[in-house]
Structures are given as structure tokens and as C-alpha cells.
Write a structure and sequence with these properties.
single chain, mainly alpha, Arc Repressor Mutant, subunit A, Tetracycline Repressor, domain 2, 2 domains, elongated
Length: 225
Amino acid sequence: MDDRPLAYRVGGRPSQQSVEELELRLVEAAAKLFTEQGYAATSVDQIAALAGIGKQTIYRRYPTKDHLFKAVLTEHLFARFVDAWAQRMQALAEEAEACSGSALEALKQICRITLELMLDPDAVSLYRLMIAEERRSTLSFSELETTLLVFEGVIYRQIEAAQQAGEIPLRLSAYAGQALISMLSGWANKKTLLLGVAVEAEERDAFFDCAWTMFLDSVKASAEL
């Protein structure tokens, strides 16, 4: 199969766009198969077939399947996914606060979308893949924890904004935010990673409302101290 960009086949140099498009086809095909089938069950032949390119095209870029896996996991799946959700969370916080004039309401919306992220099938597949293939991944658990702090950081900053706006007592313990995050992540991980069940929107929203109420109760208790 001649999968080279047209510029190659007519004797010219490929454009940057054509090279990037070919790379994107490759990594997206590999990402799909790795997350759906796992590392061991995925072959370079399968990746090449799904991407519509030749095996040699892959090997020119990545000497082994292991090199491709690490690149896909760290540069494509993890980076793109984390960046996209972090940006979405920040944009939502700004929008919610602008519309409601309430930093606390913005915090609620951030936490709601955080729960959605934890239950997102793509996020669950990525997390499972990272756990199963931890030895092959270039991401250590300490690096994973550091990256996940990006999400927690958005929540903590919004708590501080609510404190400055007088909507949350300044004396509120930092553990309150950690407890809120733990409630959300603990329930989501139990459902998706341990039980392997899909959570419907109605159940997700009911749990979130309960967790949020418990958080507000802790805020109220802190204010009365």
C-alpha cells in the first residue's frame, strides 16, 4: 500500500499538513485499539489496517510497538485528554460565575463536570490501560498524580474564590475540598473500575446532589464554629 502523501508520490516534499494528518491517523488508530483491546491483543498489522497505512510507515516513525504505545499514551491520549478537560473545566467555571455572579455556583458546576469526567468511558478506558500497562508506560504514578492535580487545582482555586467572595468561611479546612473530591472519585471509581457498570445520567445527578449537599453542610458547620 502506498500510503505516502501525494507530494511524495509526485516527487516533491510532503507539506507539513500532510505529515501531520498522516501522524494523526496513525496515533488515533493506535489509541483506539490500545484502549479497546489492550497492549498485548493489539498488533501493528491491526493498527496499520485501521489507519489505512503500511507497516513500514509506522516503523519509520516508531521502531517497535512499545515505542508507539508509549508515544500514544503520553503524547496523545493522556496529554490531549487532560488538557481538553482542564480547559473545559476552567471555561465552565468562568461562564458559571459570570452568569450567576456566584463563585460557589461556579464551584458546583466544576465539581459536576469533574464527576462527568470520572465517569466518561474514554477516561475510564485510559485509566484502565494505564493501570494494566504501568510497566510499559513512561508515566509513573507520581507523574500521574501531579497531572491529576491540574483538576484538583481548579477546584481548590474556586474554593478560594468563594472564600474571598464571602460565600465560604475563610476558616473552612482544606480537607473539605479534599473530602468533596474523594466522595466524587471514590464513588465513580467503584462504579466504573471495580463494578464495571455504566452510570446513567439520572443516577449520576442524584449522587452528585447528595455529595454537594454534604459539602454545603460542612461549610455551614464551619461557619457556625
